[in-house]
Design goal:
Elements lengths: L1 E2 H10 L13 E4 L3 E7 L9 E8 H4 L9 H20 L14 E2 L13 E3 L3 E8 L3 E2 L2 E2 L1 H20 L6 H23 L2 E6 L6 E3 L2 E4 L13 E5 L5 E8 L2 E5 L6 H10 L13 E3 L4 E3 L7 E4 L17 E3 L4 H14 L4 E5 L5 H4 L3 H6 L14 H8 L2 E5 L12 E6 L2 E4 L1 H10 L33 E4 L3 E4 L2 E4 L9 H17 L7 H15 L19 H9 L8
Parallel strand pairs: 1-2, 15-21, 15-22, 17-20, 20-21
Antiparallel strand pairs: 2-3, 3-4, 4-7, 5-7, 6-7, 8-9, 10-14, 10-16, 11-12, 13-14, 18-19, 22-23, 24-25, 25-26
Helix pairs in contact: 1-4, 3-4, 3-5
The structure holds adenosine-5'-diphosphate and magnesium ion (MG).
The site of adenosine-5'-diphosphate (ADP) has 15 residues, from helix 6.
């Protein structure tokens, strides 16, 4: 450990030298309030910025102990501090100029969700902040004085404003902590109340635009139909009232543009806790809910899709179905079966992103094409047994077929963005005509056990053979894993984490014996016990990881074209 004045001397002494002299500043420096760790120094001003950490005692920043004495509180506080550090560092991003990334101070960027991240790690007595600094240069010459300004003036100011309790918006911090505790409580309350989802009255569901996840200004607030209303008394002392969606089969119907997809998307995202003023703070679904869609072209490795697709032409077996290029219906069938393997208790389906031949087949078509000649058992004939046999609920949008009236437990119509309970009417319509579907279907079978093989990952060597490319792609050597079908993957940092976690997973939990779910359980248990940091390849880095759900990890692995199943 060196004294901070040493850093000053060093920076001034290398001023004007070639960029590579910066590597001499690597190390730990004791500043008056904290330790600065310069862990990795970039090789030139165009390379990714240098990786650093601040280690600061909790007493120094004076964040109350009772704010960090539980995991969820720590997630809220860490989220709050990360956003604050980001905001403060933005103020200085043009104050040091130079080549490439010169003068940039970067920390992970948070979206509308509060996620478990590695950017600000809160331990019992210490807070650790991971960030990057673009060490300044003119051309390839070191700007030592400018660098010195960053470490002696700018960073200390950012740290003070971003982390010290006396400089924080204390009310906002308290609000955020209360909110996450309320959200956790309410989400855990759902199954006890026989519910799979809840949308509070007054929620703002639509988003500003396709590229902005912020609330749409001037949107019509959500209001539950009276008979579906339910009230929760929250730990904060607040009461929320809104629409409870019960277990079973729920149909969302209504004319085009009346807000059906907007409701479903809010439910997809309801597996996450949103920040104050998002509009979806109390739009909560059970945490294992999975969006199911068609995904033509994806690969499938030995998935039992026989509940939906059987006796394909040419007697192709579907108990262990594999393809490198799935059709709409086979991909959607695999997505359902894999979601069950990932322990989803709620499926969310929008007809707009579904394969119609997977979703419905009406009675007339049933008469024309005899069952023996039709490989597909449509979802409408399976959705009840999914619930009865496996306890898995479904919420789905169907605007174009009344066949689901018979199987639905309730039907909610969206009318000018407001839900109406039309269950009785839909059931009457279904009962009135003598329109009987043929629906002889066997119970949903218990799923086969899939064992992933370690030979799936033949490349040897460095961990960074696995890396994220944006939110929707993960690279393994030359292979790209396409994640664009994962609508519940919400943050680039989750994809960064998927890459790091997959590297750890293949090295530690793939043993040619454990099933996919056993191995993934072990990985998540390890992270639960030791934190997301425990799977990072370098101490304290990367600082831009956010924990994805188990369901997204499964989905990522299932889309890897090199995956081999025993
Ligand atoms: P549907 O799926 O029924 O066709 P969408 O959910 O796609 O309808 O919504 C249609 C449009 O209405 C979208 O542009 C959406 O942003 C907007 N919208 C949805 N809900 C609301 C609301 N509560 N207030 C205002 N606009 C809304
Ligand atoms: Mg729609």
């Amino acid at each position: 450990m060196k004294e901070y004045k040493k850093l000053q001397q060093l920076l001034l002494s290398i001023d004007g030298q070639s960029y590579s002299s910066y590597k001499r500043i690597k190390g730990f420096y004791q500043f008056p309030d904290y330790i600065l760790a310069i862990d990795h120094v970039q090789v030139d001003p165009y390379a990714p910025p240098s990786k650093m950490r601040i280690l600061i005692q909790r007493e120094t920043v004076d964040i109350p102990k009772e704010y960090i004495n539980q995991k969820n509180k720590r997630i809220a506080v860490s989220d709050f501090l990360t956003r604050n550090f980001y905001k403060q560092s933005q103020k200085f991003n043009h104050s040091v100029k130079g080549t490439g990334t010169s003068g940039l101070i970067m920390i992970d960027h948070c979206g509308q969700e509060m996620l478990e991240r590695t950017a600000v790690l809160i331990k019992d007595n210490q807070i650790e902040v991971r960030f990057e600094v673009g060490l300044p240069a003119a051309g390839r010459r070191i700007l030592g004085k400018a660098a010195n300004r960053i470490f002696q003036d700018i960073l200390p100011e950012i740290i003070k404003q971003a982390l010290f309790y006396r400089h924080l918006n204390q009310t906002a911090l308290q609000t955020q902590i209360d909110l996450i505790l309320d959200q956790k409580y309410l989400r855990e309350e759902l199954p006890k109340q026989n519910l799979v989802a809840f949308i509070a009255n007054g929620s703002i569901l639509p988003r500003e635009s396709g590229i902005s996840d912020e609330p749409l200004i001037g949107a019509k607030p959500f209001q539950s139909p009276a008979n579906l209303e339910i009230e929760f008394h929250l730990p904060s002392g607040k009461t929320v009232t809104g629409m409870g969606i019960k277990k079973g089969i729920t149909l969302l119907v209504g004319g085009g543009f009346h807000g059906k997809s907007t409701v479903l998307q809010a439910l997809e995202r309801g597996v996450y806790n949103h920040i104050p003023n998002d509009g979806r703070e109390f739009v909560l679904t059970v945490s294992d809910a999975v969006k199911i869609r068609a995904e033509d072209g994806r690969s499938i490795q030995k998935v039992d899709i026989s509940p939906f697709i059987n006796h394909l032409p040419g007697n192709k077996v579907t108990k262990q179905f594999s393809t490198m290029n799935a059709s709409g219906s086979t991909s959607q069938a695999a997505n359902v079966v894999e979601a069950l393997e990932a322990r989803a208790s709620l499926l969310l389906i929008d007809e707009y992103t579904s394969a119609m031949n997977f979703m419905i087949r009406d009675r007339r078509m049933q008469q024309l094409i005899v069952k023996e000649k039709e490989p597909i058992t449509p979802f409408v004939d399976r959705v009840q047994s999914l619930y009865k046999d496996l306890g898995v609920s479904t919420i789905l949008i169907i605007g174009g077929s009344g066949d689901y009236f018979e199987v639905a437990d309730r039907v909610i119509m969206m009318d000018e963005y407001l839900p109406k309970d039309v269950t009785a009417k839909a059931k009457n319509i279904a009962a009135a005509d003598s329109y009987n579907r043929e629906d002889s279907v066997e119970p949903f079978e218990i799923l086969s056990r899939r064992v992933p093989l370690s030979s799936s990952f033949p490349l040897s060597g460095k961990e960074d053979r696995l890396r994220a490319k944006g939110k929707l792609h993960l690279l393994y050597g030359w292979e790209t894993i396409d994640l664009s079908g994962l609508e519940q993957l919400v943050d680039d940092s989750q994809t960064n984490a998927l890459a790091v976690m997959l590297a750890y997973f293949k090295n530690h939990f793939l043993n040619d014996h454990s099933s996919l779910s056993e191995a993934i359980e072990q990985l998540y248990q390890h992270i639960e016990n030791f934190g997301l940091d425990a799977v990072s390849p370098y101490t304290g880095h990367p600082g831009n990881l956010a924990l994805p759900r188990k369901q997204e990890f499964y989905a990522m692995l299932n889309r890897y074209r090199g995956l081999k199943i025993k």
